[in-house]
Amino acid sequence: MTDDTLFMQRAIDLARQGEGHVEPNPMVGAVVVRHGQVVGEGYHQKFGGPHAEVHALAAAGESARGATLYVTLEPCCHTGKTPPCTQAVLAAGIARVVVAVGDPFPQVDGGGIAQLRAAGIECEVGVLEREARYLLAPYLKLVTTGKPWVIAKWAMTLDGKMATHTGSSQWISGESSRAVVHKIRGRMDAIVVGSGTVHADDPLLTARPAGPRVPVRVVLGDLTTDTKLAQTMDEAPLMVVRQRDTEADEYQWLLDGGGELWISGTDDRLTRINLLLDELGSRRMTNVLVEGGGKVLGALFDAHAVDEVHVFIAPKIVGGEGAPTPVAGLGLSDMAAAWQLVDTRIETLGTDMYLSGRLPKS
Known about the structure:
The structure is a single chain. The protein is an alpha/beta fold. The chain folds into two domains: 3-141, 3-Layer(aba) Sandwich (Cytidine Deaminase, domain 2), CATH 3.40.140.10; 147-358, 3-Layer(aba) Sandwich (Dihydrofolate Reductase, subunit A). It has eleven helices and 14 strands. It has helices at 3-15, 52-60, 85-92, 111-118, 129-145, 175-185, 195-201, 228-231, 252-256, 269-282, 294-302, and strands at residues 29-34, 37-43, 68-73, 96-101, 122-125, 149-157, 190-194, 216-220, 238-242, 260-263, 287-290, 308-314, 342-349, 352-358. It has a nine-stranded mixed sheet. Strands 2-1-3-4-5 form a five-stranded mixed sheet, sandwiched between helices. Helix 3 (85-92) runs parallel beside helix 4 (111-118). The model has no long low-confidence stretch (mean pLDDT 95). NADP(+) binds at residues 155, 169, 171, 197, 201, 293-299. Its cofactor is Zn(2+). This is Riboflavin biosynthesis protein RibD. Substrate binds at residues 185, 205, 208, 291.
């Protein structure tokens, strides 16, 4: 491992500490190195706060003059909630800047590097680019497509069932698995479920204990006032997504309680999914967790809208031809076309197996 990759890896590790705190901004880390020694480091800590470069340069002080700055994302060159990072880099007297990934944000998009080079600063782009892109993937998707990063999550038995043939589903996974789910929820912008899941499980869809974010709970389909979701609008936001033939008067109780009714304008399931993701993206939601049921997850897979999968597999067998499976929808006709996860990780949680991975995009 070269010095450049070593210091960039440190910047990536720092960036990860901002997860859940900085969105819709990107997670960014920065390290200042002089004569082979780290003299300052920092990361973007919260949305609206100073960027990683500013923290690192402040920590380095006068030692930044003539030093190298390693940063996971191209320094910004525009004034947003904070001043341009390029100006801070120039003022600090940095001699060289090493960047992992260029920023596709329209107000940057190569402009930061160009500005630094025009000022005589040596710039190198692409060090540990793959690793940085992995961390930045939700941000990059939101900026380039306008849609949030979609995470599909489910728990199932060893024989691939989400419930018994009678609908009994609590609990499939153990306490350790459920603790991980709550941690994931706590960094999401929205949690999506179908009305079938609400009627079967009556979930709260909150993170317990609370995480850095409070996700909007989104229900696809009908919702009644006797559900936990309807009764806890003071604890977390609630959105109900309905088809175009829905009368707003039916959900006056939702509106009166501070919830939101979003009417998609179409009856087609795949179109409705894409319109919803566009809507959530327009609100700058970065990460969306979809917890089922099978019809909703199936529609998302059919629409090629899933980016990441988290599955909790319990060493239990329930059988039953009519017992529901995690992913319904149209599905695929050819096994050779099956969705294949990459960057998979497998770990044991109590007696459960926890598998996660991402879906490559063509």
